[in-house]
Design a protein that fits this description.
- The protein has two domains: 283 residues, no CATH class; 193 residues, no CATH class.
- Helix 3 runs parallel beside helix 11.
- It has 526 residues and is an all-alpha fold.
- It starts with a helix and ends with a helix.
- The chain is built from 19 helices and no strands.
């Protein structure tokens, strides 16, 4: 019990700074989507921007945080343990050279292949093509930023990488307001903001890398590809890219299905996912980012007891965070959408489409977050094949379900398919993880299942007052034209009421994870 409590406190303390920065980033991401909703609504222009931004984002996840983080950090950890500065410098120079070469090829290919890609999504062709070409160099910027992130995270420095996405969101928001009057349409102003933000993401991290004493430069391609560390990284990246490609192809096919299901469906799904990503980014991604270097160190040193404690703790914390939020979101989904997005071109039809998608997205939140925790458990063991197989299987299930459900449920069907596929991915990851006898999967699964059931019951009880009160809680504020007053204030009261009821139930049962979180933040303030 003491080890578990200590593990909880340690994980929370290490992740708290990153979580706060990520919270700022995700809140700004929501502001960014609010600006997009106000300027573009769920119009064909909004769909064009969504598709154009998604295409370089797909490759970003292949070359950047998806592959670099999971393949680079475990290899980099090995070099840090050997403590040979010259060897480490050669490894970093090799990875930097190979990464720069590959993303440059990808950007050039993307520019020339854009006319073949743009027509696949049912959006306005000319605008989608132009926006794609404007934003494609963003891939190179964020790939280099991910390389810097891998170095910093490998030495347990997380703050600069948490701040970098804040600059991206600020750039997009600022460019929209500043350049929209000067461009043909606001989507082009937003695209310029994306490119500027990607550049700043890389530049903000470089001084911290240099401050830590790491140096690298371009070297010959042959030497770079033949470096043992590069080869080890590429061996890990290979299966990861297949898995990430399956996941991103999943996004492409889902977007194509949604794009042909009607105007605004693509955009409504993205608005819904932005709400979901606020929670995932603040908590699941932050915990997963902190977890990977820790698990990698424990696995390479054979400290499996510490490895298991960290994994169990992370799974329990994810349940504590995501399950109450899921229940609250299902009760107040429409109010959340109206508060965050309803303005100017985001009309009643936009609200209806987005609420439908959100209602089917939210039930998968716990499983998507859990997958963000389980994947690093494999990468820490230098096993990228198992999560790849799980990802490909989940992709196949998602595609089949999306094709089946998009007809009757439109955007809701695509969202439901993602939630169901996420459940399958979780099941497969747990099954594959259990093949290592050193990993206490049974213990982790029992703990997470029992804890999730308890939290579901507590969350449903906490939601009873909200359901009973219903619109009566919002009625006194309904006369205001300012939605921060008419929706924001009563929604804030609902949140407080729900939170107090939930915290009270946790306190009555002396919940160990809640107690560990309270102690961790108490020590941090002290």
């Amino acid at each position: 019990m003491k080890n578990a409590s200590s593990s909880s406190a340690s994980l929370i303390r290490h992740g708290s700074t990153l979580s706060l920065l990520t919270l700022g980033s995700r809140v700004l991401g929501l502001v960014r989507e609010m600006v997009k909703a106000a300027y573009l609504g769920t119009t064909p222009l909004s769909d064009a921007f969504t598709v154009a931004f998604m295409i370089p984002n797909l490759l970003r996840r292949l070359f950047a945080e998806g592959s670099i983080a999971v393949a680079f950090i475990p290899t980099f950890k090995g070099y840090l343990i050997k403590d040979d500065p010259e060897d480490t410098r050669t490894f970093l120079s090799s990875v930097f050279t190979v990464l720069s070469f590959l993303v440059t090829l990808a950007v050039i290919a993307g520019f020339f292949l854009a006319p073949k890609i743009a027509p696949l999504f049912g959006t306005e062709y000319d605008e989608t093509l132009l926006l794609t070409r404007i934003m494609f160099p963003y891939l190179a910027c964020v790939s280099i930023a991910a390389f810097f992130q891998g170095i910093l995270n490998g030495v347990n420095v997380f703050a600069p990488t948490g701040f970098a996405p804040i600059l991206l969101n600020l750039s997009i928001i600022g460019a929209t307001y500043a350049l929209a009057p000067l461009t043909v349409n606001p989507a082009r102003a937003m695209a310029i903001g994306v490119l500027l933000g990607g550049t700043l993401e890389a530049l903000i991290q470089l001084p911290f890398v240099l401050k830590k004493g790491f140096r690298f430069s371009f070297i010959g391609l042959k030497r770079a590809f033949s470096n043992p560390g590069t080869r080890a990284t590429l061996r890990l990246i290979g299966p990861t890219i297949i898995g990430m490609a399956a996941y991103q192809l999943n996004d492409l096919v889902s977007t194509a299905l949604a794009g042909n299901a009607g105007v605004g469906v693509v955009s409504s799904l993205q608005f819904s996912l932005r709400l979901q990503e606020l929670i995932l980014g603040v908590f699941a991604v932050s915990i997963g980012t902190v977890l990977l270097p820790n698990l990698a160190g424990h696995a390479k040193s054979g400290r499996w007891s510490e490895y298991n404690d960290r994994l169990v703790t992370a799974m329990d914390i994810i349940a504590l965070i995501t399950i109450p939020i899921t229940i609250f979101s299902l009760v107040n989904g429409e109010k959340l959408v109206r508060l965050l997005f309803q303005a100017r071109n985001f009309n009643e039809d936009s609200v209806r489409l987005t609420v439908t998608a959100f209602t089917f997205h939210v039930p998968g939140l716990f499983f998507i977050a859990l997958n963000r925790i389980l994947a690093p458990a494999f990468y820490a063991q230098s096993d990228s094949k198992s999560p790849t197989i799980a990802g490909v299987a989940a992709f196949a299930a998602n595609m089949a379900l999306a094709a089946l459900l998009v007809g009757p449920l439109k955007g809701g069907g695509v969202a439901l398919a993602l939630s169901l596929a996420s459940v399958l991915n979780t099941v497969l990851l747990l099954a594959f993880l259990s093949r290592n006898p050193q990993v206490a999967v049974g213990r982790a699964l029992r703990s997470a299942s029992m804890y999730a059931a308890k939290l579901t019951v507590f969350s449903l009880l906490a939601a009873v007052p909200l359901v009973v009160l219903g619109d009566r809680l919002f009625a006194p504020f309904a006369g205001s034209r300012n939605r921060l007053v008419s929706i924001g204030l009563p929604l804030g009261l609902s949140t407080i009421l729900f939170g107090l009821a939930g915290v009270g139930l946790l306190a009555l049962t002396k919940d160990k994870q809640a107690k560990a979180i309270f102690k961790a933040f108490s020590r941090k303030r002290g």
